[in-house]
């Protein structure tokens, strides 16, 4: 299950986490974000070498600004606390899995 986190949990869940963490910056009112949500759940269930978390940009505006999120959904892939990849907009399941597998 994809975990929803806020700015208080971000350091522990993303920056201090070992391995791959995929962060979905989203908003409840965003159509493409709603389309992406079930795909992220599927990817999380299928991929065992990555953790997926979601950050609501309306609730964590400081975090979104800190990471330069200007459009949503924005997906940032962190590996051992460092950003390795960023994508903006809806991503199909195959693209998400491919992105994760490239850093295995």
Give a written overview of the molecule.
The protein has one domain: Glutaredoxin. The longest helix is centred in the middle third of the chain and has 16 residues. Strand 2, helix 2 and strand 3 form a beta-alpha-beta unit. It contains 4 helices and 5 strands; from the N terminus they run βαβαβαββα. A 5-stranded mixed β-sheet has the order 1-3-2-4-5, with helices on both faces. It is of the alpha/beta class. The mean pLDDT is 95.
The DSSP helix count reads 4
CATH superfamily: Glutaredoxin
Shape estimate: globular
- Please identify the top-level CATH class: Alpha Beta
Strand content: 25-35%
N-to-C span: 21 Å
| H and E order | EHEHEHEEH
Q: How many beta-strand runs?
A: 5
What strand line-up does the widest sheet have? 1-3-2-4-5
Total discrete domains: 1
| Low-pLDDT stretches | none
Major sheet characteristics: 5 strands, mixed
Q: Which second-level CATH architecture applies?
A: 3-Layer(aba) Sandwich
Structural class: alpha/beta
Rg for CA atoms: 12 Å
For the residues shown, what is the average pLDDT?
Answer: 95
Question: Per CATH, what is the topology?
Answer: Glutaredoxin
Helix content estimate = 25-40%
């Amino acid at each position: 299950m994809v975990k929803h986190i806020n700015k208080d949990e971000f350091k522990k869940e993303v920056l201090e986490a070992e391995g791959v963490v995929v962060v979905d910056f989203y908003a409840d009112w965003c159509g493409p974000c709603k389309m992406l949500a079930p795909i992220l759940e599927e990817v999380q269930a299928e991929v065992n070498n990555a953790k997926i978390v979601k950050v609501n940009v309306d609730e964590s505006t400081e975090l979104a600004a800190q990471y330069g999120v200007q459009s949503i959904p924005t997906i940032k892939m962190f590996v051992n606390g460092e950003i390795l990849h960023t994508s903006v907009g809806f991503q199909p399941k195959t693209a998400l899995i491919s992105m994760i597998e490239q850093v295995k």
